[in-house]
Amino acid sequence: MIVGLIGPARQELALPRGRQAVACDPVRRTATMSEKEHDAVSFTERETLVIEVLREAGRPIVGAHLADLLGISPRTLRYDIGRINRLRGIPLIESDAAGYCLNQVAYGQALGEALPVSSVLEDDERLLVHLLDRTSVDLYDAARDCYLSESAVRSAASRLAPRVAVHGMSLSVNGSRIEMDGTELQRRRVLGGLVREAGNASIGGEWRLRRLLPDVDPGAVEAAVVRGLGEELPASDDIAWQNLVLNLAICLQRAEHPVDAAEVDQTPQRTWSQSGRVVDEIVRAFPSRPISAGDRAYLRRLVAVVLDNQSGADVPRGSVDDAVVSAVVAGAVDDCIRHFDLRAQRDRLVESIIDHTRRLFARKATLVYFRNGLRESLRTRSPYLYDVAVYLAHQISSALAVPVTDDEISLFAIYLGLYAQEREDGADLVAVTLVCPRYQTLQEWLLARVVEQFGEKITIVDVTTTIAAAEATDCELIVSALGSAGATRPVAEISAICSDQDLDTVRAKVTAIRDARLRGRTASALARFLDPRLFFADVQFRDSEEVIDFLCERLIATGKVPAGYTESVRLREAYSSTAFAHRFAVPHSMEFIAHEAVIAVLIPRSPIRWGDAEVALVLMLALNEDDLVDFTWFYQQLVYLLGDPQLFAELRAKRDFASFSDYLADQFVRPRRTSSS
Question: How far is the CA of 32 from the CAs of 122, 146, 257, 307, 489, in angstroms?
Fold first, then answer.
């Protein structure tokens, strides 16, 4: 059953594994606002962001830091928190000497009640939903029906035009008429995009979903699918199942606007009989929805595509040339392995990406909605791997002329995570030589003991019988069971039995060497990758477009990147937003074309709109292949730090280059903090 579908704290769609229909407790949906909805709590976008930041932090945040993070004054923050607590009726946000924190019990209750802790549909969404049912409407009627002013409708229409153009539709304002032209399948894809955005909402997405699908309960759709499949219920993955249910729900919501049967490919598929039974069950489950012959054919096709993809059935011939796909994917994977210097199970990776690309073509032709709920966690937790996936998607998309969304890109990232990884540069491993007399199996035993305890932190250079022989090896630390006389390098003295106390001695020496190396590597990275000429604080721009233009111009002016750098950055941004966690953005080029690796830093006075998010810090990366290993290490350290709301707020408060660099140098060598610390 679909429960708590939306938001990072949601329960994902639970795939029914048994043979019984899933029990449903449908939420009553009506086309008009119910009394409960009318009285519902409605938080502003900024208040919603306050809740989300505190939820992610998992510990108190000092008020001044939280206000700075959000780009507001402490007084405004206090007002927002007061309003949040008043609207909820209980203290959703608490405060003490340590700062503000989220009341987890109250937050859990709010989610459990599916409380609409977000504003209702935004102006653009409200107008777009209104236009989906019409090809032409009077501007003043639209303003009245959507509770907007005439000027607001005109502004919203201009913003919506490129949004619907992505799906092949056109939207224009001609005098007092708004015209939106497109096929019914295109309109369903537009609605699917809105449903996807609801799914990506941090808080309040369930409420938005109800507004977008007021006449259809996804839980009831799921139950009908389970009944239709009966004993043939496949072991489908959760992502495919969730997408199937919501595709069907979207089509049922649009049932009063049927598709033309002539537009539907009715070529029988491997799962054609099962798909027909599912459609029959859906028709019985929703007697109030007028399902036409065209829609019956389309729903059957939709179910068959998803089931065939999961059962390993072939994508219908004619939709894609297998030989072309295989050649393009093999070349793209090889390019990625070379470009990012990956260690990969090449054949397994190629095979997986070929299969996925063919499924992508099938989905593109039929589905009106596709979402991968793992996308944000993959972007945030594995940013480097996700960038590899973006590069791979760009190669495939360009060669095959098939759009690849960020939801599809995140699936590429999963395959890369399974079958490829970065090459270890060995920079964190301490080179160790073991000194031990030859006595039966003593050397082998001590070696096994040391490797077992420190295998992920050291590399064994040699095993010798004297300190002098150890000094001749290329090691950083000597672990000796024969004392340290004559040694000029660091020595960890141990006994022949290598007790726990001996292990503590080795551990201390290894840690000291790694810490010293980390300090040196950090100092070198800061000197190489940060430039005071590319540090900008307390400046302001309207949106990501202006920021990208400005920072690219500065990088070009300082000779760090070539003249065409801006276009490459825009290309990368077009595939997937580089904004993270509603806090910071890391725009960069698609290719490694910088003359010199560097990071341009921008700390605006207040948050800047960046796609669907607002960011309070921008780090533009200039990348080249020569510095890839060190730069990747530095970038991953930086993203880890910025992912912590408290550390991010502290860093953003550093408004001059020296204090900014000093803070990074200090944090990079500190032990990692956890959310419970």
Answer: 17, 13, 20, 35, 79
